[in-house]
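Lecture 7 notes: from sequence to structure.

We start with a single chain of 466 residues. Read the sequence below before looking at the structure.
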Amino acid sequence: MKRRQFLQCGALNALAWLTPTVSAKKTASMAFELTAKPGKIHIVGPDFPATDVWGFNAQVPGVPIRIKLGQSLDATIHNALEVPTAVHWHGIRLPNAMDGVAGLTQAAIQPGDSFRYQFVPPDAGTYWYHSHVNAYEQVGRGLYGPLIIEEAAPPKVDRDLVWMIDDWRLRDDASIANDFGAGHDRSHAGRIGNVPTVNGRFRDIIKVRTGERIRLRLINASNARNFALSFGDLTPTVIAMDGQAVTPFATKEPIVIGAAGRVDLILDMSGDPGSKTSVVDSFYREPFDLTKFVYEENPLRESALQSSIDLPPPNIPEPDLQNALVQEVTIAGGAMGGLRRAKFNGEWVGLREIAQQGYVWALNNVVGNRLDMPPLMDVKKGRSIRLTIRNETAFPHPMHLHGHHMKLLSINGQGLSEARWLDSPLILPKQTMEFAFVADNPGKWLFHCHALEHHAAGLGALVNIT
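Now the structure, written as tokens:
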């Protein structure tokens, strides 16, 4: 859709989206019924037709799931689509059989069938759920939703907002472009859309009050777009990344969120009553307004809250760095990459022949085209792993390890002042990151690029823990 049409489409719709959840009660478990089915949503406002989507309970984002730490999540997924699906609970350290990777941890949920997921999330934080069957199409059509695990004693805020940020590739009639898995997307930056949204809406406004304190949970649900968000005169304080607490730090630098990543912020709304503040994305060449805060005329309070915003520290096993298994991984391939040949189905094959099969990426010169291929790592439960990932390509890659969090130790050889636990770190072109984690969760786990077209084109592998 033409950019000018969008900029002129007018009416900004008030959407605070305060996560209208099914409230968690003081019970041992919370039950949810989610149906994957077609629906219609107004992404670009009343001047355009509604867009046909696939959504959980026909909405995008899907039903917000919010439970308390220690509660069991009991979710039954019904498939009312005409194609198989499955649900992955992104970022959760859960039992392997509940991970939702069709063909690896479970059979796909066939049309008309259901599957019940039951597990107790061990960590509080901001997570999400999404399809893991032909994900580049099913996520691209809207099959995702937020998953919030509340702390026992969360920071005091006036509102807890969830923003699922995404982008859509729409045609002039607001329909989704049906070119999923296109060759250019597979070999370049992935499917980058032309319509960025917050909670399924383009250029909405968020009404706020002067003096209000907001916990803003950012979830990047896009196929491949990365965001770098600036908040104008506001100074966000980062309190968590990928669901895991960090020592709070305030920053005026853009908040970078790779595809599948999450960042929790504290925002003290300091603007004048009646004023506006744009939230601007600048990750790519042309910055754009993602959304806008609009201050109401009556302030909530005269000055910011002084209460603590610290979260409980992560409760993740610390790796033994001295005795860790050292593993190096090199990402290669794609357009403008140096990959000339790689192992494909166990044999060395030239890039031209590999590309004819739809694959253009490799990890350690192995194309990840099957779920029964030999694992990248095969270790015993409890073993510490020191993992170095080198991105030798021209494009960024958010690398997601299922069932675990990885502790980021260094970037390009420079140690961090504070190591951070991540499950979907964004590795920029020609960048090297070093991680460590304890392989404490048995099973066969997927390790892949969460630019979904990259994964479909070979950028994936298995980690086997026994």
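The chain has three domains: 3-151, 166-295, 321-465. Keep this in mind for problem set 3.
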